[in-house]
TrEMBL record, chain A:
GO terms for biological process: transmembrane transport. This is Raffinose/stachyose/melibiose transport system permease protein. The keyword Ribosomal protein does not apply. It comes from the Bacteria. It is found in: Cell membrane. The keyword Transmembrane helix applies. PROSITE patterns: ABC_TM1 (PS50928). Gene3D superfamilies: MetI-like. Belongs to the binding-protein-dependent transport system permease family. SUPFAM superfamilies: MetI-like. Pfam families: BPD_transp_1 (PF00528).
UniProtKB/TrEMBL annotation, chain B:
PROSITE patterns: SBP_BACTERIAL_1. This is Probable sugar-binding periplasmic protein. Part of a binding-protein-dependent transport system for a sugar. It comes from Chitinivorax tropicus. The keyword Signal applies.
Length: 304, 417
């Protein structure tokens, strides 16, 4: 029997497919293509094969900056994984405690910074932490810690950590909401059965609730990963495109920006920029692939 | 395909940028700060003489200007008149065919040869931008604080540090309003501001270009050494202090001295409630000849792809006129017209700075010519290295070594042993 072509499906899918191809798939493919070209003195582009990538990965002039940005990006991601997501889990768990008063208010307040523009958040924190105008030092003085105050955003050793924590503060609402929703979806009967069996609430959390929300935790991880490796705005609004001091806050996003658009007297190079963008794409692709093959597939067993 | 990409990029960069229309002349510039002056003073003055021509001043922030302008020029969406950076940046645009030849165009005859150098080909045969103005580097100081502490503006380096020491002892006032967050000040203001007294201005600069001097020579290391001695006199948390923070500190009277340039005079005339004066970079020993960074900073050229070249040239001719020179010098205080018209400078501090030209020798920012032509980019290197020296993370000697090795990597005259 010959199946008729499902025309209605084609018609309904077409607009989305068209928009997706034009604004997402085509630019991506074109970026990958552009990465294989080089710009010469006159500004003309010609095919250069993998020359850009060779420069980027092997020539110290490019690779030092690239690997520094990559390493900083890993640290940026690491801090989010170690601080943002566990605290998000903790907050969600506390919020889902039955009979908690003001739960909605807490939820809204914690989620509020996520709604703010990153640029505003950047400037607010820059002001708070400014040794000149900031309230940070005074607040620390009230609890007797004034002498521990440092210009955290200005020191090589602490600038990246400070920026990561600002980002954590802003985006903690996302994992919290996702995990919270997952926790609410845990079937009551399962919990009730465990209570009847005499399990402590500690055990219920570790052995029932947590395994049941693993898919959500996996999703949060991959969202954090993609978000962090595409991050740029916070660094740019607080430290500018040079990501100082001495490139200590430079991540792939800011490195890409300087390469592609140029900064101050450094003229942007679309071809080199496309090569950096391709590398970023590959890193994210690898991360997502690992997630799909190693994590997502295993988690299927737990899905209800 | 390629053209479309670049156009797309240019449009993205320019936002909702419309192509120039006939009858309208659009000026590309990085002087965001002067936007109102252009719109309220300069453009109306031009339009009074040339009715029917609409002029639009459309600046991009200084740090983004070079790259976004290049993108717009390549994509064909740039304005009719291009504000030119001095030396290499504009020369590069000219070589790529993005600037018209201006030899013999009306207005050009009003400029002395020295002023034109910044916008000529290396052999001096072709000019591509009309010189507009220069800025001068130096120190602004709060006269009230100086009077209270019984201080006089220093002449020598020793006096300079003595003054800084006295101010620091008060414990309340920051001696120097300077931060390293934005980085550019450490090169454009500090290193090439105080340095010419060590490398004797043009002599030292030309020696670097000729390959006869190295950054590791004592005259260049000494400038970095003086910088490293500034650190104790900077404000608390200076490593996260932006240029705007420094401006505010000085304007509020919380800092005594602001290492900067003449372009700040207008800002402090508006924002500072105290009287301020200026002094040039201190010399090593009393009686030494002084050198100042008197930087030919702004010129103006014509976009060959302009749809309204006639009007653009009319505007350019006006930029070369006495009226413009007078308006620019006295309204955009701190930018000194480069034309040879006689102009009475009204602002006292601007006049004070301009008078330095009589007793000191002028030079331009060290790396403005030739030195920026390779990779690693000298300007970026100087920003990073200078900030590191001020932050106390890099010894002056090592800083000089890093500059020299980066320079020798691409510059042939520096490669012979």
């Amino acid at each position: 029997m010959k199946r008729a072509i499902p025309w209605q499906a084609v018609v309904f899918l077409l607009p989305a497919l068209l928009i997706y191809s034009v604004f997402s798939a085509f630019p991506l493919l074109d970026t990958l293509r552009l990465g294989l070209f080089a710009t010469d003195e006159t500004g003309a582009q010609h095919f250069a094969g993998l020359a850009n990538f060779k420069l980027l990965l092997l020539d110290p002039q490019w690779s030092d900056g690239f690997w520094n940005a990559m390493w900083n990006n890993l640290k940026f991601f690491g801090i989010h994984m170690l601080v943002q997501n566990p605290i998000g889990l903790l907050l969600a768990t506390l919020l889902s405690v039955r009979g908690l008063k003001w739960a909605r208010t807490y939820r809204t307040l914690i989620f509020l910074p996520t709604l703010l523009s990153v640029v505003i958040v950047g400037f607010i924190w820059q002001l708070i932490l400014s040794p000149l105008w900031g309230v940070g030092e005074r607040l620390m003085d009230w609890v007797g810690l004034a002498e521990h105050f440092q210009p955290w955003l200005g020191e090589e050793s602490s600038a990246l950590i400070t920026l990561s924590l600002i980002s954590v503060w802003q985006f903690i609402g996302v994992p919290m909401m996702l995990i919270y929703a997952a926790l609410l979806a845990v079937p009551e009967e399962v919990i009730d059965a465990a209570v009847v069996e005499g399990a402590s609430s500690w055990r219920i959390f570790w052995e029932i609730k947590l395994p049941l929300i693993y898919p959500t935790l996996g999703l949060v991880t991959i969202l954090t990963f993609v978000g962090n490796f595409n991050a740029f705005d916070l660094i740019y609004s607080v430290k500018g495109a040079l990501a100082g001091p001495n490139y200590s806050t430079d991540i792939l996003g800011s490195y890409f920006y300087r390469t592609f658009f140029g900064y101050q007297s450094q003229i942007g190079s679309p071809t080199m920029g496309a090569a950096v963008a391709t590398m970023m794409f590959l890193v994210i692709l690898c991360g997502v692939a690992i997630y799909f093959y190693a994590v997502q597939r295993k988690l299927q067993r737990y899905a209800l | 395909m390629q053209r479309r990409n670049q156009t797309l990029l240019a449009m993205l960069l320019a936002g909702a940028w419309g192509a120039a229309q006939a009858g309208t002349v659009t000026i590309e510039s990085w002087r965001v700060d002067d936007k109102t002056l252009w719109e309220d003073v300069l453009i109306p003055a031009f339009q009074k003489r040339n009715p029917g021509i609409t002029v639009k001043f459309s600046p991009t922030t200084p740090t983004e200007y070079d790259s976004s302008l290049t993108a717009r020029l390549t994509g064909g969406t740039a304005g009719d008149l291009i504000t030119c950076r001095p030396f290499d940046k504009s020369l590069d645009l000219f070589k790529k065919g993005h600037l018209e030849k201006l030899d013999g165009k009306p207005g050009m005859e009003h400029f002395p040869a020295a002023a034109k150098v910044a916008w000529q080909t290396d052999d001096g045969k072709d000019a591509y931008c009309m010189p507009m103005a220069s800025v001068m580097h130096g120190f602004l100081y709060n006269k009230k604080i100086f009077k209270e502490l019984n201080l006089t503006p220093p002449n020598t380096v020793d006096e300079f540090f003595k003054v800084l020491g006295t101010i620091k002892q008060t414990g309340k006032i920051t001696p120097l309003a300077l931060g390293t967050n934005d980085q550019w000040e450490t090169n454009q203001i500090v290193f090439t501001g105080i340095g010419p007294n060590y490398w004797h201005g043009e002599t030292g600069r030309k020696a670097l270009i000729a390959g006869q001097a190295k950054f590791t020579d004592p005259q260049f290391v000494a400038a970095l050494e003086q910088m490293s001695k500034w650190t104790p006199y900077l404000g608390k948390g200076f490593s996260s202090q932006t240029y705007a923070d420094s401006q505010n500190l000085f304007a509020m009277g919380r800092a005594a001295i602001f290492p900067t340039g003449s372009w700040e005079i207008a800002y402090f005339n508006q924002n500072a409630k105290f009287e301020f004066g200026a002094f040039p970079p201190p010399v090593q020993k009393a009686g030494d000849k002084c050198y100042i960074s008197d930087h030919t900073d702004i010129g103006m050229g014509v976009n060959p792809k302009s749809k309204n070249k006639d009007d653009a040239y009319k505007f350019l001719a006006w930029v070369g006129s006495q009226e413009f020179a007078d308006l620019y010098t006295n309204k955009v205080t701190g930018f000194f017209s480069l034309s040879n018209h006689l102009i009475a400078v009204k602002d006292p501090v601007a006049k004070q700075m301009l008078d330095w030209r009589k007793r000191c020798e002028s030079t331009i920012r060290l790396n403005a010519q030739v030195l920026n032509r390779g990779e690693p980019n000298m300007e970026t290197e100087l920003w990073t290295v200078g900030s590191q020296v001020l932050n106390g993370k890099l010894a002056p000697k090592d800083a000089a070594g890093r500059l020299q090795s980066g320079f020798a990597k691409w510059y042939k005259p520096q490669q012979k042993s």
